[in-house]
User: Which sequence fits this backbone?
């Protein structure tokens, strides 16, 4: 079957970001559909033009249609945008993979790893689908701001020029500027890692610290991000771009960020389980901390902020004690870990 | 290759390479003068040979003309250069010589080697020595290989650590009942006393690794691609050269590997009935490597940057080759050729019916990968990435189908022991001096062999690699005994010698070489104490 022209794009995942992207594209006049897991959610989007669970109080474009039928949506759609959480990514990718063919492009927007395997989402797509033309979309993209139509930018990383061109073409003329990159590894590492720093930034805010503290945290967090990203095969310059520094700025500064919210509540000594149970969205920073900590141990990488966050989240370390530990670490040359790598 | 096809291929190669250069006058000029420059440099190093001096004079004359020539004349000159390269590369196949070599050579070699064997004379083996078939074990996905070879053109890509490899592969495809394969052989093999005759007549095309001009490299690649399009099965070593360190290839040359995809797209565009090209990875696993000493010396000298051409290694000496093959028989040594699951040109596995499967085993319509709006098209950037996917799959196959031999395991154990005892010495110093102790207690070696073997067995259970039957089934004493028999007998200096309950390390470079085969398998650090 050749690629059909009815749809420009399919967004897989009716969570906050998937819905925001689909809404943005639909409002630009693109022929886009949204795949959601539950029939009730699809019905709500189609009839009420809302997605109350994830974007309460916000109206979606009247013409945005949702469906639960992957078999009807995937075949022939030239571009599939995957916007599902990392923990269910493999399962959904496999379902999508049942209907994909080699001429289709798949781009994901998920910022996280598969904890057990430390696989990046593009690796999972490669394992679960036949598609080779894969890309990673990442950057400072808070869903609520996208829904409000604020200008934004993102990085689209793919080894395939055709993938970059397609996604840039899709968003051209709208309020989302998409910059191309070939560094898939760095882009994915940056997108996932910044969630850990967002948790830490939330803690900093929750403890009432000011901008000096946050700037210290962000800068040293960026250094750790680059260290782990380069070790995984990323390009060090990627971390100074939209997917790295840009996303770190947005996530750590904004109270809209889920990870930031988790951090703030942790600082107020709320138990992690209680925080996560009270949220109807996924805070990717929590599983990502686990995955990165394990990876760093295996690779012998020194990542003090990750170590501290792991202690707080999974080892019962008190926030105040973690702070003391971090401040007690001997200081050295600021950039040596990167400059002399 | 049939003579008629040879002419077709040469014409096609010249046409395609010229078209790529003829995009604009600047590219023509660049192609021409780059070639003159590279060829001039090469010939400068060979000026002792009269033929090289003549060729240099011809290039000089052409250069002087080209400097003042019009764009049209430059095009003509370039075409002539390409034509010269293409004719030089083109191979010749004589079916009579193939029939002779396949019928006569293996039995003759067996008889010769049996006669040469002192063990045979001593009657050590009452049942007599084996034949070449016993020593060269072909295993793996042989049925799938034969099946896909009936359905399309196959490209056999192999690991490479010895000049024996091309002979072994030729012998293996013959044993599997497949037609002869086209392959690119280094010019030194054409000059080899024993092999030159066969190289000239059994379909090998000439690869002159001293020629660095990109136009020449383009001719080579295009030649291989054109033969694939015409349905000639090809084989080559995607690592580009013999592994100097002894490790399994972890980097592949993209140029030649990508020609399968190029041929596939051309076949689709031409609407051929059987457009498919299948890539069949293969590993060759020796207990002893003929040229181990030279290769590891070269590796260590250049710290991984190979000199690329070694003209004076063991393979160029018939006495060493005969000694090597004699050892193969007397030690009952096995060379294991493992055929991996065939792949399509995108790196997907292919089943026996020639269908591509994704990693979940779902059938894939491979034609879709190269289609745009339903039409097959070439896209150099996309196709380069597809070839990287293929390279990754080939390297995964190489790893999975590498056979760990007793020589690899014992070398790793002894070398690991040395590193543990000499932590203060860097690699090169340890290799040179051997560290503080000249021998290793056998009991320590047994313990290390046992430990590593357990890890290897677990990895084999997961399908990550293969184990030779001795490593798999016998105890540490038998593993060490078999490995010692090999390591102390063939090489000029024995790598290890047993005296009493200790092993004396005589050639650390060889130990390093044989243990390097296990690099990249994520085993416990070699320095780890047992």
Assistant:
């Amino acid at each position: 079957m050749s690629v059909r022209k009815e749809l420009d794009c399919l967004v897989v995942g009716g969570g906050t970001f998937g819905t925001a992207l689909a809404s943005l594209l639909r409002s630009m006049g693109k022929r886009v559909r949204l795949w959601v897991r539950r029939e009730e959610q699809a019905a709500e989007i189609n009839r009420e033009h809302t997605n109350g669970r994830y974007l309460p109080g916000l109206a979606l474009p009247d013409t945005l249609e949702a469906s639960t039928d992957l078999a009807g949506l995937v075949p022939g759609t030239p571009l599939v945008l995957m916007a599902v959480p990392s923990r269910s990514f493999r399962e959904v990718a496999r379902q999508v993979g049942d209907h994909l063919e080699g001429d289709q492009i798949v781009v994901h927007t998920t910022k996280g790893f598969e904890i057990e395997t430390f696989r990046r989402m593009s690796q999972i797509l490669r394992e679960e689908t036949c598609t080779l033309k894969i890309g990673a979309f990442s950057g400072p993209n808070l869903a609520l701001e996208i829904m409000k139509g604020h200008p934004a930018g993102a990085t689209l990383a793919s080894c395939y020029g055709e993938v970059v061109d397609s996604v840039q073409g899709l968003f051209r003329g709208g309020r989302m500027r998409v910059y191309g990159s070939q560094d898939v590894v760095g882009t994915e590492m940056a997108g996932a890692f910044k969630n850990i720093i967002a948790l830490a930034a939330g803690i900093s805010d929750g403890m009432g610290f000011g901008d000096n503290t946050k700037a210290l945290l962000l800068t040293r967090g960026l250094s750790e991000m680059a260290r782990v990203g380069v070790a995984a095969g990323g390009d060090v310059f990627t971390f100074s771009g939209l997917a790295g520094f840009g996303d770190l700025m947005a996530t750590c500064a904004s109270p809209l960020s889920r990870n930031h919210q988790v951090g703030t509540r942790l600082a107020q000594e709320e138990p992690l389980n209680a925080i996560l149970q009270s949220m109807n969205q996924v805070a990717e920073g929590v599983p990502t901390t686990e995955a990165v900590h394990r990876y760093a141990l295996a690779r012998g990488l020194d990542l003090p902020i990750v170590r501290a966050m792991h202690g707080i989240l999974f080892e019962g370390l008190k926030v105040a004690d973690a702070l003391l530990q971090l401040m007690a670490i001997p200081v050295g040359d600021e950039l040596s870990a990167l400059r002399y790598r | 290759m049939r003579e008629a096809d040879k002419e077709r291929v040469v014409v096609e190669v010249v046409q395609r390479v010229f078209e790529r250069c003829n995009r604009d006058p600047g590219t023509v000029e660049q192609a021409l003068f780059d070639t003159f420059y590279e060829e001039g440099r090469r010939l400068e190093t060979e000026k002792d040979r009269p033929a090289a001096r003549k060729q240099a004079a011809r290039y000089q004359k052409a250069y002087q003309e080209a400097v003042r020539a019009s764009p049209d004349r430059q095009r003509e000159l370039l075409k002539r250069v390409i034509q010269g390269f293409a004719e030089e590369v083109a191979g010749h196949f004589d079916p009579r010589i193939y029939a002779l070599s396949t019928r006569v050579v293996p039995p003759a070699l067996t008889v010769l080697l049996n006669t040469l064997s002192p063990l045979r004379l001593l009657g050590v083996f009452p049942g007599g020595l084996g034949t070449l078939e016993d020593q060269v074990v072909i295993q793996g996905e042989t049925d799938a290989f034969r099946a896909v070879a009936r359905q399309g053109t196959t490209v056999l890509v192999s690991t490479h650590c010895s000049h024996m490899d091309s002979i072994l592969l030729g012998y293996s495809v013959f044993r599997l009942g497949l037609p002869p394969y086209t392959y690119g052989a280094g010019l030194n093999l054409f000059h080899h006393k024993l092999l030159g005759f066969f190289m000239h007549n059994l379909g090998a095309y000439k690869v002159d690794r001293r020629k660095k001009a990109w136009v020449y490299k383009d001719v080579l690649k295009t030649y291989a691609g054109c033969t694939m399009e015409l349905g000639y099965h090809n084989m080559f070593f995607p690592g580009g050269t013999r592994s100097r360190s002894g490790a399994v290839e972890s980097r592949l040359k993209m140029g030649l590997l990508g020609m399968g995809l190029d041929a596939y797209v051309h076949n689709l565009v031409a609407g051929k009935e059987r457009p498919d090209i299948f890539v069949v990875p293969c590993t060759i696993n020796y207990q002893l490597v003929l040229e181990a000493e030279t290769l590891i010396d070269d590796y260590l000298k250049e710290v991984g940057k190979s000199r690329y051409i070694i003209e004076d290694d063991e393979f160029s000496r018939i006495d060493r080759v005969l000694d090597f093959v004699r050892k193969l028989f007397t030690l009952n040594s096995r060379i294991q050729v493992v055929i991996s699951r065939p792949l399509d040109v995108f790196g997907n596995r292919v089943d026996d019916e020639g269908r591509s499967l994704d990693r979940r085993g779902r059938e894939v319509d491979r034609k879709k990968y190269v289609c745009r709006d339903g039409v097959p098209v070439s896209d150099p950037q996309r196709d380069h990435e597809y070839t990287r996917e293929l390279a990754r799959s080939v390297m995964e196959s190489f790893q999975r189908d590498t056979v760990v031999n007793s020589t690899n395991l014992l070398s790793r154990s002894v070398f690991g022991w040395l590193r543990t005892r000499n932590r203060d010495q860097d690699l090169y110093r340890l290799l040179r001096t051997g560290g503080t102790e000249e021998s290793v207690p056998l009991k320590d070696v047994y313990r290390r062999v046992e430990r590593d073997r357990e890890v290897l067995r677990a990895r084999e259970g997961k399908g990550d690699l293969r184990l030779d039957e001795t490593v798999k089934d016998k105890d540490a004493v038998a593993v060490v005994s078999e490995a010692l028999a090999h390591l102390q007998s063939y090489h000029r200096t024995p790598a290890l010698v047993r005296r009493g309950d200790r092993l004396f390390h005589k050639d650390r470079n060889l130990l390093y070489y044989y243990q390097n085969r296990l690099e990249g398998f994520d085993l416990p650090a070699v320095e780890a104490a047992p």
User: Anything to note?
Assistant: Chain B has 23 helices and 17 strands. Chain B touches chain A at residues 346, 348, 358-360, 362, 364-369, 371-374, 379, 381-382, 385-386, 388-389 (CB under 8 Å). Chain B has three domains: 3-89, 95-181+233-400, 403-518. The radius of gyration of chain B is 25 Å.
